[in-house]
């Protein structure tokens, strides 16, 4: 029984050995080795003639070809975003892919400046485009006249992982993306923490009075509150523009609609809130402690008027956002 | 005379009476301002989740507590079912059940529905009371009364507590405030008695609402900040330890919570601070015994090192999986982009969106700028309990900025802090009599003192001299307060009092017209379908179907099983041939879709459709692709230019089936999207239209049984249509024969 078991475990091993010995890359396709010799880190730089060589004629490998436009003048953001992941994926396959399968998949990348003919021939008007050409001979061969698979770019991060999955399902090969661990980040963090600790050690006698200052903490608290209540987190999450064109050639600072906003208007609102809060603090805490009747009267009058106008203006701005809002303060009817 | 009334001991009873009267008036105001929807519509449960709570409450009242505890619900999540008793927060239902039985015992038989509808307003009165006590601990009686008045009518709280919104939040905000009050009280007097009371209400809160995690983190945070400020005291130790030990043990009695308090990251800060306090207390004790300075330095190091080691151990345990990491819902509060990428089902809910500034002003009005002033005033005095409000204000503002629904947790803090600012103003300006003018010598001495910045307020306030100044400020602030009241009333009546089950619209002559399609359709289901019929709909309507139509559903608002929801999404997004096996496998008898095209009702399924696609794509990325629902130019279209995938999808077909027949040929318009729909409507092979409500909002389809001859439905239908033509031809045949 045990013998049988050990034999069974040996079986797949043996079969891979046989297959590996019987079909070397060169046997399968001489073109392949030739192409790969030109590659850097497993990525073949494709131009018009190599493109032909890669996709025409019988081949036993899957080719993944990225047609991109990295020229700054073309201004293709997606191309630049995607390129590092693609190169990384090619490198991962080149270095870490299973040895006996490695020859069955190759990665090529071509730039518009180098392969205009290819772009024209394929009728491409936009970049980047990624094709997966299935093999035409061999065990995984696609039926004749099979169209290459066109990859849909995701609008998210982690494109590489997604593409690896897609290639795996298309070709049946275990493609995986190995992101190198960014050690510099760890070193940097460690160094930062260390330097902060050192600075603290030496600067603490000077910093401590500042850190223990109540006004500092009060200011920080109030700033945080103003930021959050004026919709800063919304700006941060939705990445709203600072302002936008109003469609008549001008600029509009206030977005239409109740659940929408621009960066500029949140700043305006934060300043309004801060001003009003300051007035209330002045009225509630400073004025009653003032000496002298005259000065106090002036202060009360000034702060009261500021609060009134500020609140009135705030309501006016709010009426822009919500036109159905019926309330206002008298001098500022709009 | 007035002074005597305000301060004299002999008038204490009168003052208490006055306070009680004011509080009762506030409670009445709180309740009555929440009754708009009952008066305008009827005593009805609102929205979505409340329907489940209502259904659960009915079950509890009917079957008793123990069977409620063990309730396995086979009417939802067909065919999986749901262990409802173990996966809900029972506090709300038990509360209403208790009230029902007490009233019954008092021979006051009140329908359970009315108890459920009116529970939220009733508890808002109690919230006002709890807020009064809380604020009284912060400042004084008058601030407390103001805070109670604010919380009673603040729209930020009303939005979740109008009559009929029978949801966990209805009682949770009261529990939140009373727990915080008891915590402050325990901290102030340093008594285990108050700590235990705090734990008791904490337990109630855990039983009532998942938001209890807010308390679980606020109290430790407060304790931690106090320790960092060097304000450790035996009072803090007693209060915290009694709360934590009792509260944690108690909270573990809720089946849904179970061992989470010791096994999940959300609860680790409470445990960590508990440990920290033990060390600090130990060191504090040693310090009193050993005066040596070096030794104290050593001890300090020990505290810090132990703390760091403990945190490292926590991190290690989390990484190794012993302690569950932050659950997605909470994690997305910190990493704000997380939900959108990883948990579309959370990102799809509208109340999980970030808050734009108008929402703050809408919900808080002038409190939004009054409350930072109150926070500043607390900074002046900065007693231990003031630190709590300050920390609460910062955390609350952050959370409410990230998620609209958390405005609810910010509102109490805003009311407390705003009331402190307002009462400071009123105390200074609404008093008769002015202070004595300073003599010239005093003035000179004052001038000689170094001047400080505008906001540094030192020394005792002297008061305001001129009656004119007092008049200006008191009149303007009274106006702001009045404006706040009208604002709150307007907001409540216009924005927060719609049951959303029943829609209201205005006819041209100004009279109100009620659109009651939902109930019409649910009632149709209840009366015309077999009792065990399975209804498929998008998860939003699951609770309503369960509650109003009493039929089994595939998915509901509990959203515990993403794959099951994705299955429904896939069925809706696929073409008929792909969808039919899915429908058969899940025993679907009827499909319900919401269509607003005729009425211009924008919350319909076509507008939610992309989320269905996205959620389905998350599970079956190869079979459902969001890209295919957009045109080549990236537009989401439903008119002639819609993509083929869109036109073939079951959702599209069900929404627009026969819709064009309502209009003259080629004139059919979708009033939500504002586009013309194709002149030739979609055809359905696997479904029969079963019911369409008056305004076409709800459309119900019956899933056809398998064909008798084993054909697929498309060819069967084609055959049927062909046959009719043939019959017409064959009729002609014999006639000609006779001639």
TrEMBL record, chain A:
Topology in membrane: Multi-pass membrane protein
Any Gene Ontology biological process: protein N-linked glycosylation via asparagine
GO CC terms: oligosaccharyltransferase complex
Signal peptide, first to last residue: 1-20
InterPro entries given in the database record: OligosaccharylTrfase_OST3/OST6, Thioredoxin-like_sf
Top-level division of the source organism's lineage: Eukaryota
Keywords: Endoplasmic reticulum, Membrane, Signal, Transmembrane, Transmembrane helix
Keyword Signal: yes
UniProt-annotated location(s): Endoplasmic reticulum membrane
Record has Cell cycle as a keyword: no
Function: Subunit of the oligosaccharyl transferase (OST) complex that catalyzes the initial transfer of a defined glycan (Glc(3)Man(9)GlcNAc(2) in eukaryotes) from the lipid carrier dolichol-pyrophosphate to an asparagine residue within an Asn-X-Ser/Thr consensus motif in nascent polypeptide chains, the first step in protein N-glycosylation. N-glycosylation occurs cotranslationally and the complex associates with the Sec61 complex at the channel-forming translocon complex that mediates protein translocation across the endoplasmic reticulum (ER). All subunits are required for a maximal enzyme activity.
Family note: Belongs to the OST3/OST6 family.
This protein's name: Oligosaccharyl transferase subunit
Species the sequence originates in: Ascobolus immersus RN42
From TrEMBL, chain B:
GO-annotated biological processes: post-translational protein modification; protein N-linked glycosylation via asparagine
Family assignment from sequence similarity: Belongs to the STT3 family.
Membrane-related topology note: Multi-pass membrane protein
Gene Ontology MF terms: dolichyl-diphosphooligosaccharide-protein glycotransferase activity; metal ion binding
Segments of this protein annotated with the region Disordered: 437-458, 718-739
Catalytic activity field: a di-trans,poly-cis-dolichyl diphosphooligosaccharide + L-asparaginyl-[protein] = N(4)-(oligosaccharide-(1->4)-N-acetyl-beta-D-glucosaminyl-(1->4)-N-acetyl-beta-D-glucosaminyl)-L-asparaginyl-[protein] + a di-trans,poly-cis-dolichyl diphosphate + H(+)
GO cellular component: oligosaccharyltransferase complex
Protein name: Dolichyl-diphosphooligosaccharide--protein glycosyltransferase subunit STT3
């Amino acid at each position: 029984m045990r013998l049988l078991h050990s034999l069974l475990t040996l079986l797949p091993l043996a079969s891979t050995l046989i297959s590996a010995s019987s079909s070397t890359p060169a046997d399968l396709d001489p073109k392949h080795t030739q192409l790969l010799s030109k590659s850097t880190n497993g990525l073949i730089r494709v131009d018009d003639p190599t493109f032909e060589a890669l996709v025409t004629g019988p081949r036993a490998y899957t080719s993944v070809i990225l047609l991109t436009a990295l020229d700054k003048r073309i201004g293709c953001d997606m191309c630049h975003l995607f390129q590092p992941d693609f190169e990384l994926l090619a490198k991962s396959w080149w270095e870490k892919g299973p040895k006996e399968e490695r020859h069955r998949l190759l990665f090529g990348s071509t730039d518009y400046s180098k392969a205009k003919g290819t772009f024209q021939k394929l009728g491409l008007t936009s970049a980047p485009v990624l094709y997966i050409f299935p093999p035409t001979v061999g065990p995984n061969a696609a039926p004749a006249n099979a169209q290459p698979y066109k990859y849909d770019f995701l609008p998210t991060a982690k494109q590489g992982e997604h593409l690896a999955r897609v290639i795996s399902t298309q070709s049946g090969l275990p493609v995986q993306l190995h992101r190198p661990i960014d050690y510099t980040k760890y070193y940097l963090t460690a160094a930062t923490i260390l330097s902060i600790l050192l600075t603290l050690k030496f600067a603490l006698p000077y910093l401590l009075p500042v850190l223990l200052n109540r006004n500092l903490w009060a200011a920080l608290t109030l700033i945080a509150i103003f930021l959050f209540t004026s919709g800063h987190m919304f700006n941060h999450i939705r990445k709203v523009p600072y302002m936008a064109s109003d469609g008549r050639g001008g600029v509009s600072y206030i977005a239409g609609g109740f659940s929408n906003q621009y960066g500029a208007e949140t700043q305006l609102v934060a300043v309004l809130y801060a001003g009003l809060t300051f007035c209330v603090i002045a009225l509630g805490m400073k004025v009653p402690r003032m000496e002298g009747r005259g000065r106090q009267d002036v202060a009360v009058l000034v702060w009261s008027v500021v609060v009134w106008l500020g609140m009135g203006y705030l309501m006016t701005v709010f009426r822009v956002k919500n036109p159905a809002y019926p309330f206002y303060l008298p001098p500022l009817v709009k | 005379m007035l002074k005597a009334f305000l301060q004299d001991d002999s008038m204490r009873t009168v003052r208490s009476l006055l306070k009680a009267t004011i509080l009762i008036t506030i409670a009445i105001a709180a309740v009555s301002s929440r009754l708009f929807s009952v008066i305008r519509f009827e005593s009805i449960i609102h929205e979505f989740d409340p329907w489940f709570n209502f259904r659960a409450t009915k079950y509890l009242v009917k079957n008793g507590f123990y069977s409620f505890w063990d309730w396995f619900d086979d009417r939802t999540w067909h065919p999986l079912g749901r262990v409802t008793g173990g996966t809900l927060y029972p506090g709300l239902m038990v509360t209403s059940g208790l009230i029902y039985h007490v009233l019954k015992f008092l021979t006051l038989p009140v329908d359970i529905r009315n108890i459920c509808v009116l529970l939220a307003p009733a508890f808002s009165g109690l919230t006002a009371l709890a807020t009064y006590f809380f604020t009284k601990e912060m400042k004084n009686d008058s601030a407390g009364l103001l805070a109670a008045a604010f919380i009673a009518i603040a729209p930020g709280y009303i939005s979740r507590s109008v009559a009929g919104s029978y949801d966990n939040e209805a009682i949770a905000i009261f529990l939140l405030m009373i727990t915080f009050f008891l915590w402050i009280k325990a901290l102030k007097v340093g008594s285990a008695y108050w700590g235990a009371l705090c734990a008791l209400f904490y337990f109630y809160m855990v039983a009532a609402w998942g938001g209890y995690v807010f308390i679980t983190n606020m109290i430790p945070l407060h304790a931690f900040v106090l320790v960092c400020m060097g304000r450790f005291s035996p009072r803090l130790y007693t209060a915290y330890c009694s709360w934590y030990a009792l509260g944690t043990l108690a909270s573990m009695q809720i089946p849904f919570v179970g061992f989470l308090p010791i096994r999940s990251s959300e609860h680790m800060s409470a445990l960590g601070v508990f440990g920290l306090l033990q060390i600090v207390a130990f060191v504090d004790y040693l310090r009193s015994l050993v005066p040596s300075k070096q030794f104290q330095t050593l001890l300090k190091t020990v505290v810090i090192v132990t703390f760091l080691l403990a945190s490292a151990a926590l991190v290690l345990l989390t990484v190794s999986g012993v302690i569950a990491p932050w659950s997605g819902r909470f994690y997305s509060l910190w990493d704000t982009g997380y939900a959108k990428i990883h948990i579309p089902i959370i990102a799809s809910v509208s109340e999980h969106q970030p808050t734009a500034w108008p929402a703050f002003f809408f919900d808080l009005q002038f409190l939004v700028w009054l409350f930072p002033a109150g926070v500043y005033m607390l900074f002046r005095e900065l007693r231990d309990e003031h630190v709590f409000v300050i920390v609460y204000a910062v955390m609350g503002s952050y959370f409410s900025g990230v998620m609209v629904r958390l405005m609810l947790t910010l509102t109490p803090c805003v009311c407390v802090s705003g009331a402190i600012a307002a009462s400071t103003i009123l105390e200074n300006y609404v008093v008769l009599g002015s202070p004595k003018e300073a003599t010239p010598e005093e003035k000179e001495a004052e001038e000689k003192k170094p001047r400080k910045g505008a906001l540094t307020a030192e020394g005792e306030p002297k008061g305001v001299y001129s009656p004119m100044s007092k008049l200006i400020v008191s009149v303007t602030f009274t106006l702001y307060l009045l404006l706040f009241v009208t604002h709150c009333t307007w907001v409540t009546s216009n924005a927060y009092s719609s049951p959303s089950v029943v829609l209201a619209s205005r006819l041209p002559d100004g009279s109100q017209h009620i659109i009651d399609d939902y109930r019409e359709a649910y009632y149709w289901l209840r009366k015309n379908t077999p009792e065990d019929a399975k209804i498929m709909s998008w998860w939003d309507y699951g609770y309503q179907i369960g509650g109003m139509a009493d039929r089994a559903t595939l998915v509901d608002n509990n959203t515990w099983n993403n794959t099951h929801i994705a299955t429904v999404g896939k069925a809706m997004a696929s073409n008929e041939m792909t969808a039919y096996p899915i429908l058969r496998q899940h025993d679907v008898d009827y499909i319900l879709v919401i269509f607003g095209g005729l009425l211009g009702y924008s919350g319909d399924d076509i507008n939610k459709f992309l989320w269905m696609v996205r959620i389905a794509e998350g599970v079956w990325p190869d079979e459902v692709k969001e890209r295919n629902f957009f045109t080549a130019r990236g537009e989401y279209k439903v008119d002639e230019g819609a993509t083929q995938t869109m036109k073939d999808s079951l959702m599209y077909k069900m929404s627009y089936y026969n819709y064009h027949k309502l209009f003259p040929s080629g004139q059919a318009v979708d009033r939500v999207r504002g586009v013309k729909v194709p002149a030739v409507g979609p055809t359905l092979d696997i479904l029969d239209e079963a019911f369409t409500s008056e305004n076409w909002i709800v459309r119900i389809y019956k899933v056809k049984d398998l064909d008798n001859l084993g054909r697929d439905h498309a060819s069967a239908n084609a055959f049927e249509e062909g046959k009719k033509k043939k019959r017409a031809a064959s009729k002609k045949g014999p006639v000609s024969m006779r001639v």
